[in-house]
Amino acid sequence: MDNAFFSQTLLALLGGLPLTLNLTLLALIGGALLAVCFNLLRLTRFGHYPVRFYIWLFRGTPLLIQIFMIYYGLGSFELVRDSVLWPVLREPYWCGLIALILNDAAYTSEILRGGLNAVSPQSIEAAKVSGMSSRKIFTRITLPIAVRQALPAWSNEVISMLKATSLVSTISLMEMTGIADAIVSSTFRALEVFLTAAVIYLILSLIVSRLLTLLEHRLSPYQFGAR
Amino acid sequence: MNTPTILLSNIKKRYGGHEVLHDISLTAQDGDVISLIGSSGSGKSTLLRCIPFLEVPQAGEIAVGDNRIVIDNVDEKLSAAQQRTIKQMRMQLGFVFQSFNLWPHRTVLQNIIEAPVHVQGRSHKEATEEAERLLQKVGLYQKRDAWPSQLSGGQQQRVAIARALAQQPKALLFDEPTSALDPELVGEVLRVIRELAEEGRTMIIVTHEMGFAREVANKAIFLHQGMIEEQGPPEQVFLDPHSDRCRAFVHSHLQRNPTG
Fold first, then answer.
1. Cα–Cα distance measured from residue B88 to residue A132, given in angstroms and rounded to the nearest whole number
2. How far apart are CA B144 and CA A158, in angstroms?
3. Where is each ABC transporter domain found (chain B) (predicted)?
């Protein structure tokens, strides 16, 4: 192993770390907010049809194709090119982020649905008899319990998103995988470079799963199996 | 006559084709302790759950203090004004469930101050002080920071009673408060309820503990198939009922549970 090359590669790859983390974090936040909205919409009389369609669409197609459709596909419509959104939609960063958010929202929505279904009707009845409004019941009882129940499943989604950000390298974004790919095409040392990148992803996922376990214990020390 | 604390009149409730409550009326004056007895399926829990509108009756009138709702048309949705009245009624009632229904994501103390702070708008400090006083009363002050899942059933139910009391209710409603408990834990919960009765609180208690129902109440009501079959002072209902069904029911239960 060439130590000089290795440390050079490591440093270069770490240069892409901020973008990787930025995309992961924003995709998760955006996805979670959309997931809450989708689940609220689901409760309405007709709202669950478009939500189910959306989830079917975004879970049923590859993320890579979703990224390409948003980056290359939308630009082929004159209507989009002429719109006020064009300055945003022609940027690979925004297109990549939007694709990640939309994709994450579909999965997170299903995870949250599982958590919401697991909230006992008894908890909700207790809230009702105390005189709480429906909105308060949702924000103070239903959602917090659902989030705690959904956390273990969501931590899978977090790690999956962390790795999924590598796909935006295909639309020229220089996050870690994008940088790795560039180094490989100039040095042809694929094994060392990609291995280094893989190790960084491994360490990141270890940190993320530790943090989420801590959060689980913090939020519900004696519940939901987090003993 | 004073405004009754709780008034139910001509309550009718149907599930599908099956009529669970036929035209039931009931009045609780201030300080009344009413025990509602009857076999399973007699409608006693349903009747109790109608008071805070956990079940919406098909017809009838329900009043808690000055708040009153009359339902004459089943198919009509409750109006916004009625919804507000229901909220007012609920704030004036403390409801204790058979399976405690504590919120699992809140500690004991947080369970108790939730409604005072977030529904009634009292200050966090005042609510906490009162919660601590109530926890002392039910003998669980040392568990204030525990999670519900760390407590025994009897302890959870005592916390649930403290939570109901924290609303400063005009009346307390108990829906089979000891039915989900192991026999050795029943006593601690009944003791707390008995103390509340001695304080002169208005209460309606649905229970299978016949000895307790007789001793704690000043009025007993025996329901059978959604109708009031017998009502009166506990001595009459338990010892000398007019109805044969009531006599048989009480007799079989007192034999099974001689100490209550």
1. 10
2. 35
3. 6-250
Q: How many CB atoms lie within 10 A of CB B229?
A: 19
Token pair recorded at residue A182: 């560039």
Distance CA A157, CA A164 (A): 10
Q: How far apart are CA B96 and CA B52, in angstroms?
A: 12
Classify burial at B169, counting beta carbons within 10 Å of its beta carbon; exposed 0-12, middle 13-18, buried 19 or more: buried
Confidence of residue A214 (pLDDT cuts 50, 70, 90): very high
The chain B residue lying nearest A225, using CA atoms, is B149
pLDDT class of A226 with cuts at 50, 70, 90 = very low
Go through the domains of chain A in sequence order and give each one's CATH number. Answer: 3-219 (1.10.3720.10)
CB A95 within 8 A of CB A145: no
A167 token code pair: 């796909």
Specify the pLDDT at position A1: 62
d(CA A189, CA A183): 8
By the CB < 8 Å criterion, does A122 face chain B? Answer: yes
Helix (H, G, I), strand (E, B), or coil: what is residue B135? helix
CA–CA dist B48, B254 (Å, integer): 23
| Cα distances (Å, whole numbers) of residue B236 to A210, B207, B216 | 66, 18, 14
pLDDT for B260 equals 44
Q: Which residue has the tokens 């919409």?
A: A41
Six-digit token pair at B24? Answer: 């039931």
- Could you give the 3-state DSSP secondary structure of residue B28? strand
Q: Does A145 touch chain B (CB under 8 A)?
A: yes
Per residue in A164-207, pLDDT (tens digit) is: 999 999 999 999 999 999 999 999 999 999 999 999 999 999 99
Cα–Cα dist B243/B104, whole Å: 44
Backbone angles phi, psi at B240, to 5 degrees: -140, 55
Q: What is the mean pLDDT of each run of 10 residues along chain B (260 residues)?
A: 87 87 93 92 92 92 92 79 92 95 94 95 95 95 93 94 95 94 92 93 94 92 92 91 90 65
Using one digit for the tens of pLDDT, what is the confidence trace for A16-67? 999 999 999 999 999 999 999 999 999 888 889 999 999 999 999 999 999 9
- Chains A, B: CB contacts within 8 A come to 65
At residue A225 the predicted structure's pLDDT band, cuts being 50, 70 and 90, is very low
Distance from CA of A41 to the nearest CA of B (A): 21
Q: Among A35, A50, A69, which residue's Cα sits nearest to residue A157?
A: A35
**Helix (H), strand (E) at residue B27:** strand B18-28
B186: helix, coil or strand? Answer: helix
A153 alpha carbon, distance to own chain's centre: 13
Contact assignment for B102 to A126 by CB distance below 8 Å: yes
Separation CA A159–CA A154 (nearest Å) = 9
B8 touches B47 (CB < 8 A)? yes
